[in-house]
């Protein structure tokens, strides 16, 4: 399979399936398209009709776009891995948590864009963004209390991959978090697949100025 992604420094949506596949040892070839360039749109449209990354190109010729659709496809194709929790009730909660990340937190996305090389503590803390952060903090605490950790539903799963880009934002902008949420963010950052993504992002030389003003 091939996974078409954008820059690791910027592409929060791309990060999720890449981390997921890397963590579970699902083989894939990475195809990276630099974002924000004149040829970017055409390059992505050549592989994905959505015009967006990520896109998973399966070994039987299927193109699957959208992060959550890719995650569900991988869960179906690789049932030997617990991409979702095995317990049905935990799985339902994990899907709810992941879908909320997929559809919500617009203020956070806008004022604290993912730019892993950037460090701007305190920036972007608008009232709407702080409300998003409070909801995420509460959600993480509830999941960790229910599962006992170390990740949201015990073992690392799709839910953790969905929130990994939020952790990257928190690393860059350093909003105030509860002690349990901060510890969870540190564990996600140290998870080997996430750490590999961060390392690769820091080595990239391509820049999108409006998304990385201080790097």
Keywords for this structure?
215 residues; alpha+beta; Glutaredoxin; Glutathione S-transferase Yfyf (Class Pi), Chain A, domain 2; 2 domains; 4-stranded mixed beta sheet; 9 helices; 4 strands; 7% strand; globular; Glutathione S-transferase YfcF; GST_Omega/HSP26
Count of separate DSSP helical elements: 9
**Low-pLDDT segments:** none
The CATH topology assignment of the largest domain is: Glutathione S-transferase Yfyf (Class Pi), Chain A, domain 2
Assign an overall shape: globular
- How far apart are the termini? 33 Å
- Profile the largest sheet: 4 strands, mixed
Quantity of strands, as a count: 4
Lateral arrangement of strands in the main beta sheet: 2-1-3-4
Helix/strand structural class: alpha+beta
> How many structural domains are formed by the residues?
2
Helix coverage percent of residues?
40-55%
**Any idea what the radius of gyration is?**
17 Å
CATH architecture of the largest domain: Up-down Bundle
Which percent band covers the strand fraction?
Answer: 5-15%
- Mean pLDDT over the residues: 95
């Amino acid at each position: 399979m091939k996974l078409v992604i954008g820059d690791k420094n910027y592409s929060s949506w791309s990060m999720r399936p890449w981390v997921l596949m890397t963590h579970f040892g699902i083989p894939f070839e990475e195809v990276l398209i630099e974002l924000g360039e004149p040829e970017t749109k055409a390059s992505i449209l050549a592989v994905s009709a959505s015009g967006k990354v990520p896109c998973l190109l399966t070994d039987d010729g299927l193109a699957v776009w959208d992060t959550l659709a890719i995650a569900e496809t991988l869960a179906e194709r690789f049932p030997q891995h617990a991409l979702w929790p095995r317990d049905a009730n935990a799985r339902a909660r994990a899907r709810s948590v992941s879908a909320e990340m997929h559809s919500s937190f617009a203020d956070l996305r806008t004022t604290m864009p993912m730019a892993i090389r950037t460090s701007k503590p305190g920036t972007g803390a608008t009232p709407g963004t702080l409300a998003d952060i409070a909801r995420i903090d509460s959600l993480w605490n509830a999941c960790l209390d229910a599962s006992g950790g170390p990740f949201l539903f015990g073992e690392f799963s799709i839910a953790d991959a969905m929130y990994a880009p939020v952790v990257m934002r928190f690393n860059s902008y350093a909003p105030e978090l509860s002690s349990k949420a901060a510890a969870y963010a540190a564990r996600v950052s140290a998870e080997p697949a996430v750490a590999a993504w961060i390392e690769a992002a820091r080595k990239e030389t391509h820049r999108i100025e409006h998304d990385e003003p201080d790097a």
